[in-house]
Amino acid sequence: MGGQGNGKEVKLLRTWFSPYVRRVVWVLKLKGLDYEWVEQGFRDPKNRSQLLLKYNPVMKTVPVLVHHGWPVLESLIILEYIDETWKNNPILPSDPYDRATARFWANLIDQKNKERMLVASSLDDNSMNQITKSLNKLLSLTDKKQMEEEMKQASNTIEILDRELKAKGNKFFGVETINRDC
């Protein structure tokens, strides 16, 4: 990865399975930033890494972006920090109203999907087996109504955002272009 950051300058405390981490990784790639990936295996609340406890002693969660030794917490806040620090390939619109609107939609999607994301992130470190079991359980739902409701809930949130994008006439939320090399 090329870019303005380097592994010593930018660290990301993360777990591979977190959807919150994934969006930070996506934006780091979009911006072309090199970073040091510091995996955190912290399923057991009593077994948090010293690095995580140092940089996020209150929440003790990932993602944590460390830039020049200073921690930035919570994925949406991290995304804004990255966008404000590295100006190339903006992820938020420059217009204040459009930027506020984008923040609203990001927050709404977070709130609507928080329970699903937490369930997906609650597997232990031997997760491949657990993920397989969880997916099989989901796929083997026999109650058709329950299956339909789960699928409807997941697609409703995406449809809301899709309608907003179409109303704005943009391919991407609030911006016209995006780096296609990531």
UniProtKB/TrEMBL annotation:
<keyword id="KW-0808">Transferase</keyword>
<dbReference type="GO" id="GO:0004364">
    <property type="term" value="F:glutathione transferase activity"/>
</dbReference>
<dbReference type="GO" id="GO:0009407">
    <property type="term" value="P:toxin catabolic process"/>
</dbReference>
<dbReference type="GO" id="GO:0006749">
    <property type="term" value="P:glutathione metabolic process"/>
</dbReference>
<protein>
    <recommendedName>
        <fullName>Glutathione S-transferase</fullName>
        <ecNumber>2.5.1.18</ecNumber>
    </recommendedName>
</protein>
<dbReference type="InterPro" id="IPR004045">
    <property type="entry name" value="Glutathione_S-Trfase_N"/>
</dbReference>
<comment type="function">
    <text>Is involved in the conjugation of reduced glutathione to a wide number of exogenous and endogenous hydrophobic electrophiles.</text>
</comment>
<dbReference type="Pfam" id="PF02798">
    <property type="entry name" value="GST_N"/>
</dbReference>
<keyword id="KW-0963">Cytoplasm</keyword>
<keyword id="KW-0175">Coiled coil</keyword>
<dbReference type="InterPro" id="IPR036249">
    <property type="entry name" value="Thioredoxin-like_sf"/>
</dbReference>
<feature type="coiled-coil region">
    <location>
        <begin position="144"/>
        <end position="171"/>
    </location>
</feature>
<dbReference type="InterPro" id="IPR040079">
    <property type="entry name" value="Glutathione_S-Trfase"/>
</dbReference>
<keyword id="KW-0216">Detoxification</keyword>
<dbReference type="GO" id="GO:0005829">
    <property type="term" value="C:cytosol"/>
</dbReference>
<feature type="domain" description="GST N-terminal">
    <location>
        <begin position="8"/>
        <end position="90"/>
    </location>
</feature>
<comment type="similarity">
    <text>Belongs to the GST superfamily. Tau family.</text>
</comment>
<dbReference type="InterPro" id="IPR036282">
    <property type="entry name" value="Glutathione-S-Trfase_C_sf"/>
</dbReference>
<dbReference type="InterPro" id="IPR045073">
    <property type="entry name" value="Omega/Tau-like"/>
</dbReference>
